[in-house]
């Protein structure tokens, strides 16, 4: 394996509170104190731990017409991501140890982790074998895309997860309030004549799941927060002693349901884009440190699927390749409240900490998973140029500044856009 010397970059390493112009040495796939043969000039660039996204959908097995591990890995590398965690809503669902191991072994250009299904077939009826899933490498269990409607099943799942030591990752949605909704319940839905999905559907499940986490002692992780009251509820239950972490996606910070008027199905996701009040509350919570990390909810769909009417088109957008420049854009719009170190922490060190991953650090001896960022590079988002197999983004045409130019995985360059 080659040795590398990343020379003269701004080394930003939140795990070690390090932000300085320095050289970074890589040898035999690891960060080392000195050495390095191939010199990479990083003057004017940021040298950071590889980004980590614990919430992606690579659609394998069963839905590889949308994405697969190979194309998803290319998309991740292009976005500066060295590690991702795949969600279990595949066909068949990721509900057994054999499939967990197979998927982890398939990935070559990204460190692929797995969030396994809470119940067999994600049917909400029988719990999977959490201990066996953890032994196989699963980092959490989840009801993602098929949120458990039964409080009894969620309680049993949390009890088991607490015993085994796995986080419970939840998509909070009371389906009795959202089906057959397409976008946020409000003025835009009324104007377009489509059924809406009220904020309270998310908030009911946040409150229910937080109560159960408080009772069982489970680690509850709330995915893709989208409402102002949602963060209020998390704050309240944390004060009571519940162990709750949470994430937010760039699109819920930067867009509102009005984006549907211009972008149509490209702005349809679940949870839906909500109001400016919600986006502002989430932004403030992120600035104040109440949201643990950024996740993309990368959810590819084909052009044919997304050209269906708004009510029938699938939920989801791709996000891996645009997340970093979008977060830099969000930061500028808010007056740069987050330092570069804090921003990288939210996209690397923090998700590693939440899920107990050996990643997100540039300490000597750590795997050499690195992203090199040009904070001044400016370019337009062109959906057709995305590495993902699917191109469903509402950010086409946006001109963004600050892009990853190189991604290194275990000392090996897997993306080079210098």
State the shape.
Answer: globular
Estimate the mean pLDDT confidence: 98
In the CATH hierarchy, what is the class? Alpha Beta
- Number of helix segments? 14
Helical fraction:
25-40%
Largest sheet, strands/sense/barrel: 8 strands, mixed
CATH architecture: Alpha-Beta Barrel
CATH fold title? TIM Barrel
Distance between the termini: 22 Å
Tell me the Rg in angstroms. Answer: 20 Å
Strand content: 15-25%
CATH superfamily: Metal-dependent hydrolases
Indicate the low-confidence ranges by residue numbers: none
Care to give the gist of this entry?
With 418 residues, the chain is of the alpha/beta class. 32% of the residues lie in helices and 24% in strands.
Structure notes:
The chain is of the alpha/beta class and 418 residues long. It has one domain: Alpha-Beta Barrel (TIM Barrel), CATH 3.20.20.140. Helices cover 32% and strands 24% of the residues. The protein contains 14 helices and 18 strands. The mean pLDDT is 98.
Give the topology.
Blueprint: E1 4-13, E2 18-27, E3 30-32, E4 38-41, E5 46-49, E6 51-56, H1 69-78, E7 81-86, H2 97-106, E8 111-117, H3 130-136, E9 140-142, H4 151-164, E10 168-170, H5 175-178, E11 183-184, H6 187-192, E12 196-197, H7 199-216, E13 219-222, H8 228-240, E14 243-248, H9 250-254, H10 259-263, H11 276-287, E15 293-294, H12 303-306, H13 323-333, H14 340-355, E16 370-380, E17 399-409, E18 412-416
Parallel strand pairs: 1-4, 1-5, 6-7, 7-8, 8-9, 9-10, 10-13, 11-12, 13-14, 14-15
Antiparallel strand pairs: 1-2, 2-3, 5-16, 16-17, 17-18
Helix pairs in contact: 2-3, 4-7, 7-8
């Amino acid at each position: 394996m080659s040795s590398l010397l990343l020379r003269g970059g701004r080394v930003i390493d939140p795990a070690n509170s390090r932000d300085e112009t320095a050289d970074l040495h890589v040898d035999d796939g690891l960060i080392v104190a000195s050495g390095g043969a191939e010199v990479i000039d990083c003057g004017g660039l940021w040298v950071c731990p590889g980004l980590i996204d614990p919430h992606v959908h690579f659609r394998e097995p069963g839905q590889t017409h949308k994405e697969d591990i190979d194309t998803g890995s290319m998309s991740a590398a292009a976005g500066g991501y060295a590690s991702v965690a795949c969600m279990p809503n595949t066909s068949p669902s990721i509900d057994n140890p054999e499939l967990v191991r197979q998927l982890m072994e398939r990935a070559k250009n990204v460190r692929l982790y797995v969030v396994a299904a809470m119940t067999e077939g994600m049917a909400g009826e029988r719990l999977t074998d959490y201990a066996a899933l953890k032994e196989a490498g699963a980092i959490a269990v989840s009801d993602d895309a098929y949120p458990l409607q039964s409080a009894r099943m969620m309680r049993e799942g949390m009890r088991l997860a607490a015993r085994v030591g796995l986080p419970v990752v939840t998509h909070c949605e009371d389906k009795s309030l959202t089906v057959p909704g397409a976008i946020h319940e409000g003025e835009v839905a009324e104007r377009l004549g489509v059924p809406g999905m009220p904020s309270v559907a998310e908030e009911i499940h946040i409150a229910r799941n937080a109560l159960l986490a408080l009772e069982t002692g489970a680690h509850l992780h709330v995915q893709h927060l989208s409402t102002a009251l949602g963060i209020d509820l998390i704050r309240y239950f944390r004060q009571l002693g519940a162990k709750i972490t949470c994430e937010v996606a760039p699109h819920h910070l930067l867009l509102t349901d009005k984006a549907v008027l211009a972008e149509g199905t490209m702005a349809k996701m679940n949870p839906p884009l909500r109001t400016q009040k919600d986006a502002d509350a989430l932004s403030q919570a992120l600035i104040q440190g109440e949201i643990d990390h950024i996740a993309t909810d990368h959810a590819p769909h084909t052009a044919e699927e997304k050209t269906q009417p708004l009510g029938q088109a699938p939920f989801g957008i791709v996000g891996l390749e645009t997340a970093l420049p979008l977060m830099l854009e969000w930061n500028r719009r808010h007056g740069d409240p987050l330092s570069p170190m804090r921003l990288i922490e939210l996209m690397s060190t923090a998700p590693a900490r939440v899920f107990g991953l050996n990643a997100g650090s540039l300490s000597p001896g750590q795997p050499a998973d690195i992203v090199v960022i040009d904070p001044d590079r400016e370019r337009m988002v062109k959906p057709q140029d995305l590495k993902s197999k699917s191109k469903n983004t509402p950010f086409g045409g946006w001109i963004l500044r600050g892009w990853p130019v190189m991604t290194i995985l275990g000392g090996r360059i897997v993306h080079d856009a210098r």
